[in-house]
């Protein structure tokens, strides 16, 4: 949020009104009534979320809100207890992770890179769903998007800065030519300087028309968003545009600890 501190002060909150989602015909990624958890422990309750083609969506929530669980459900690492997930109009919640990737669901996680391998080797690992003949062209596109990775392509990822390591993780996810890029806390472990660097680079990704779903605590990533969901206690507590979030006094007080206009 442009006028707010990038440090969230979270508290238990209440249900707040949501704005209408895009119509179903606009949806690239669509979750309806998703419930998920670990064994007998349910973490997500009736979560519905939509990402349109070319849209940037930010999923805000504190630690323990259920963000990572939701991303695991989208990627296929966690089965659903209820609800459904569709990508491009096709139901994917019964598919394996690699099948979802082939259909266009790219996932970037904090642990998404191998520190002892070179930048280029990490990118090649991300291309496992591509035909061999297509790999060089996609890698060239990633290097054009992130020129500094090309300069360090033979270096071990562990020798890079925190911001550069995040870009390797993003580039690795882009190697599968996704329709939507799902990211789990890209700011984790980064200083404010590197957060700005990652946000600026992801803005370049957005300009290419790629849909983004970013799970975050850091509101600096609102710069990349058209719409926002706030997740708390495994439930969606707010859904709306960035301007609606900025203008909602109850959300400002409950989630950011701020009052006033």
In short:
The protein has 261 residues and is an alpha/beta fold. The protein has helices at 67-75, 97-103, 119-126, 132-145, 147-151, 162-174, 192-207, 242-247, 249-256, and strands at 27-38, 41-52, 56-60, 80-87, 90-91, 105-108, 180-184, 211-216, 227-232, 235-241. The model is unreliable at 1-25 (pLDDT under 50).
Q: What would the average pLDDT be, to the nearest integer? A: 87
Q: In terms of structural class, how would the helical and strand content be classed?
A: alpha/beta
Briefly note the CATH topology name.
Rossmann fold
Helix percentage: 25-40%
Strand order of the largest sheet: 6-7-8-3-9-10
User: Low-confidence parts, pLDDT < 50 over ≥5 residues?
Assistant: 1-25
Largest sheet: 6 strands, mixed
Question: How would you describe this protein?
Answer:
With 261 residues, this protein is an alpha/beta fold. It has one domain (25-253): Rossmann fold, CATH 3.40.50.300. The protein is built from nine helices and ten strands. It has helices spanning 67-75, 97-103, 119-126, 132-145, 147-151, 162-174, 192-207, 242-247, 249-256, and strands at 27-38, 41-52, 56-60, 80-87, 90-91, 105-108, 180-184, 211-216, 227-232, 235-241. Strands 6-7-8-3-9-10 form a six-stranded mixed sheet, with helices on both faces. It has a four-stranded antiparallel sheet with strand order 2-1-4-5, covered by helices on one side. Helix 3 (119-126) packs parallel to helix 6 (162-174) and helix 6 (162-174) packs parallel to helix 7 (192-207). The chain is globular and about 50 Å long. The chain starts with 26 loop residues before the first strand and ends in a 5-residue tail after the last helix.
